[in-house]
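We treat protein structure as text, and this decision shapes the records that our systems exchange. Because each token names a local backbone shape, the row as a whole describes the fold. For reference, a complete record is included directly beneath this paragraph.
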Amino acid sequence: MLRAVTISKLHRVANCAYPCAWAGYSSQFAFRAEAAHEQTSRQFSSSTSNISTSGKAFASTVAAVFASGAFVAGICASQQTQTTSQAEAASSEKVDKRLPTIRKSEVARHTTKDTGIWVTYLDGVYDVTEFVDMHPGGNKILLAAGKSIAPYWAMYAVHKTPETREILEEYRIGNLPPEEAEAEVATSAYANEPERSPRLRVLTTTPFNGETPAEVLEREDITPNELHFKRHHLPVPLVEDEAYELTVGGDLEGMTLSLEDLRRFPKHTVRATLQCSGNRRTEMAAARRKGLPPVRGLPWHSGALSTAEWSGARLRDVLLAAGVSEDSPNCPFIFVGLDTGATGERYEASIPIEKAMSVYGDVLLAYEMNGEPLPRDHGYPVRAIVPGTTAARSVKWVYQVLASDEECTGFWQQNDYKAFCPSQDPNTVDWSSAPAMQEFPVTSFITSPRSGDKIPPGQKEIEIKGIAIAGGGRA
């Protein structure tokens, strides 16, 4: 029987001269037997209650306590989980001599669904027209239409599996002439990646994606820098202080700032929790009903979430200095990062002006993390921090902040990080029919006991630990 439950209230953290918004601040709680006390530590708080349980009563009690905070991440097209890479079979062994020889000049004429979308890889020609809508990376495959996919193939580790190669071979329609055959592209883009803690749960290595251990989330109010979850879409750039410049422009007169210029703005510190939109996707996949389309994306457990104290200049202050006024037109602001893809595309995302200019929005152009310069993995030398908003909008390695008359048109704003009804097939869904994710909702989940843990017969007291997050502050 559940005799008492005390969950401490989410509270504000005074980091600056004004009260900070609730957005993104977290509450950690633990239920302990025979004690009823509350501990508060700025953002995370612990509380206890008495629980005596057995069998189904325990399961139903846990479900009742946390049901109101259940959170299911939306469908996001993303890189699939990395499997152990194996050497690909030599391309010459795959050549079907009965297929026609097709020159690259002919491939270049097939770039749309009307003409057929053809690509090349090594010595093969492939008609991927029917595969475009099924591509886990969305329509990014169209960047290679009429050309070689080799640069993209090298960029993402998921391609380096026999299974993926077999899928590609199903679409082979011809062979390149020997003089036009391509060499394998080396993955040199990842040659200068930073070192990472072996304690992270690694999902992919190129690009690197790793989550924070659950026991760290339970124990630490502030996630140590080396254990903060890492979500990358592209290689980590190497940026030198002296060469760094931040351009604030677009539909503004604009200005260019060095790192030292940015440091001259009043420094603000915000404690904020970042959460990937796909956090707990493994739970979503496990709960998927038969007959529904499969869940796609990286198989995050609960560790695509971490908290840090971020310091830097308020975006609002920088925009005011660049000529944005309180009554400026309702326009989005686009962050553009220095991380670069195979054909020069960069990661970019936008937030609405209401968030960018809010006195209580706490949006930062941050250059410190937990009192230290930003680590490379977290955006050194400057990144955006947008509390209470999906972490996909907190762009790392920011070098441009652009005012625009429309939302960012980039891939990760328009064809990723959107939520749809579970019955909709991500292979055929109209991505333009849903808005880009911004604020995330209040959410909570249990971290201990873990799924599959066994409770000894006769045990009357069980410690339950978990995480609660205020999201956009609309609790």
